[in-house]
Design a protein that fits this description.
The complex is a heterodimer. By secondary structure, chain A is α+β, with helices and mostly antiparallel strands. Chain A folds into two domains: 190 residues, no CATH class; 102 residues, Alpha-Beta Plaits (2-Layer Sandwich). Chain A contains ten helices and four strands. In chain A, strands 2-3-1-4 form a four-stranded antiparallel sheet. In chain A, helix 1 packs across helix 9 and helix 2 runs antiparallel to helix 10. By secondary structure, chain B is an alpha/beta fold. Helix content of chain B is 32%, strand content 27%. In chain B, the strands form two sheets. A six-stranded mixed sheet of chain B has the order 6-7-8-3-9-10, sandwiched between helices. A four-stranded antiparallel sheet of chain B has the order 2-1-4-5, covered by helices on one side. In chain B, helix 4 packs across helix 5. The two termini of chain B are 32 Å apart.
Chain lengths: 306, 228
């Protein structure tokens, strides 16, 4: 009975505190919202950067040009060998006829070139094999794999050398962006932790007189602390809900605007937040609740020891 | 009821608030503790409610040695000693009734007991007609009487009042002292810490005088002995 009475009273005290100190509560929620927003914005920026890097990486491939008249068996052998490698994401063969068709389509307004092709009478082009690696740092391995003597004699040229510098630059940029993104996120999380701790301390500082009176009239430490912790948890959950709403609005607003930067491709912002909404919500919610609870516990303790 | 044995309190580095104080206060006594500012009166009062711990010596209250009382036991001690301070310490946004009820709520008392007890103690201090007024709607003396009602609500055997009339005019001072006398008449031990000469002389009760951290006199029916 005493437990039920005390629990009900702790909840009632927490609720009354919250209503009575609405302005302080609002200020605390604002600080919590700003701290959470800063972390989430950074998470969003990281997601978009990752998408941009992935889009760039997707554009990288190695085109292998076979000599004209290379038998289909050699082409199939080259394709099946590369496709069997775990470093390969995709292998496509464009036949000699398709290459000729694409060439003629490209130069359909250039009569001189069309006449020259007609003059040759046979298809001067060989088949092309387009190889994509599952990671950009696997390209050097695949280039090495193309030296396989079973089909390397039929290769006329390859475009990797043209892309080599671009590929290595994309790799460096991607690495730096991910590295600095992680550091920046860690710094923002650290700042947010300090900001949240101080916001809770200020909120409890305003109630120090009441804490003193509670102690004076014989309230146990737990009875003093629990309503304050409960208040902080209410505020944290309110801040989390507000941030959820703001992030949803922000993503809906930004997604179409970012598409133009990605040549109409998916910028990855909405898909990232849709896929990770629950995970982010739970991780941020649990972290925030633990953080504000510990902050309240510590901040109230200062006035309980006096 | 209250026994202090060779109690000393030293604040670092070497400020002696109390020096080897020994005294006994019996059940049902009305005791005034007097002394100039800085004599150690408030330090003594704070030790009785475990706000301070003695550097040396021991303190016993109702057979309970509180010299090294554990932090978690302090709330139970506070429920046995009613405390009244000069600066009232009332919650501004609660009525007189709610301020008194607050002391019972934090102790986990039932609503039924709160509804029965609070009007009763408010009647003892003469505020039953003003139970639903907020502190700012009450005079200084009335606010102090709310504090006394709150201190009484746990039916403590000891009431400790540290300069309860320090902020009050003569009329209100008399009202508060009358309430303290009434509580003492009901059987509670009252320890009044004050430097109000007129109050002490009018009470004609036991007076313990402290100066420079020491007990310099202890008279059964004492008067204010110190120079103004």
């Amino acid at each position: 009975m005493l437990f039920i009475t005390s629990t009900a009273r702790v909840i009632s005290f927490a609720w009354k505190n919250l209503v009575r100190n609405a302005w302080i509560g609002l200020a605390t929620v604002l600080v919590l919202v700003l701290a959470l927003l800063s972390v989430n914005v950074l998470v969003g920026v990281n997601a978009v950067t990752s998408s941009a890097i992935k889009a760039l990486e997707d554009k990288v491939d190695v085109s292998v040009y076979f000599k004209a008249g290379t038998p289909q068996g050699i082409l199939d052998l080259a394709r099946s060998y590369l496709a069997s490698l775990p470093q390969t994401a995709n292998v496509e063969i464009v036949s000699a006829d398709e290459v000729l068709g694409q060439f003629l389509e490209r130069h359909r307004d250039d009569q001189k070139i069309l006449d020259a092709i007609k003059e040759v009478e046979t298809n001067p082009f060989g088949a092309t094999m387009v190889v994509k690696a599952n990671r950009t740092d696997n390209y050097p391995f695949l280039i090495e794999a193309l030296k396989n003597p079973q089909f390397s004699f039929a290769i006329e040229s390859q475009t990797y050398d043209d892309h080599a510098v671009a590929i290595s630059r994309v790799r460096e940029i991607a690495k730096s962006v991910r590295y600095f993104g992680l550091i920046l996120t860690a710094v923002f999380i650290l700042f947010s932790v300090l900001i949240v701790y101080n916001a809770i301390r200020v909120a409890i500082y305003t109630q120090r007189e009441e804490i003193g009176i509670m102690r004076l009239v014989g309230a146990s430490n737990a009875f003093v602390r629990l309503p304050l912790i409960l208040d902080a948890v209410f505020l944290a959950l309110l801040a989390l809900a507000i941030v959820g709403g703001l992030m949803a609005l922000g993503v809906v607003f930004l997604e179409p605007r970012l598409k133009s930067f990605f040549d109409g491709a998916d910028p990855g912002l909405m898909s990232f937040f849709v896929a990770n909404a629950w995970y982010l919500g739970v991780v941020e919610g649990v972290t925030l609740v633990v953080l504000v609870s510990m902050s309240s516990w510590a901040a109230a303790g200062k006035y309980l020891k006096k | 009821m209250i026994i202090l044995k060779h109690v000393s309190k030293v604040y670092p580095p070497d400020s002696h608030a109390l020096r080897d104080v020994s005294l006994e206060i019996g059940a049902g006594e009305f005791v005034c503790i007097v002394g100039p500012s800085g004599a150690g009166k408030t330090t003594l009062a704070r030790m009785l409610i475990a706000e301070e711990r003695p550097t040396r010596g021991s303190i016993e209250i109702g057979g309970w040695n509180i010299t090294r009382v554990k932090q978690r036991e302090v709330p139970y001690l506070r429920r046995q000693i009613g405390v009244v301070f000069q600066d009232f310490k009332l919650l501004r946004n609660k009525t007189a009734f709610e301020n008194v009820a607050f002391a019972l709520e934090v102790a986990g008392e039932t609503r039924k007991r709160i509804r029965e007890t609070v009007p009763h103690v408010l009647k003892i201090v003469g505020l039953d007609q003003k139970a639903h007024r907020f502190p700012h709607q009450l005079s200084g003396g009335e606010q102090q009487r709310v504090v006394i009602a709150r201190a009484l609500v746990h039916r403590p055997k000891i009431l400790l009042a540290d300069e309860p009339t320090g902020n009050l005019d003569t009329l209100n001072t008399n009202d508060v002292i009358d309430v303290l006398k009434k509580i003492n008449a009901f059987g509670s031990t009252v320890v009044l810490v004050t430097h109000n000469r007129d109050t002490i002389n009018a009470l004609n009760s036991r007076v313990i005088t402290i100066a420079d951290g020491r007990v310099v006199s202890d008279q059964k029916h004492g008067k204010y002995m110190l120079p103004e």
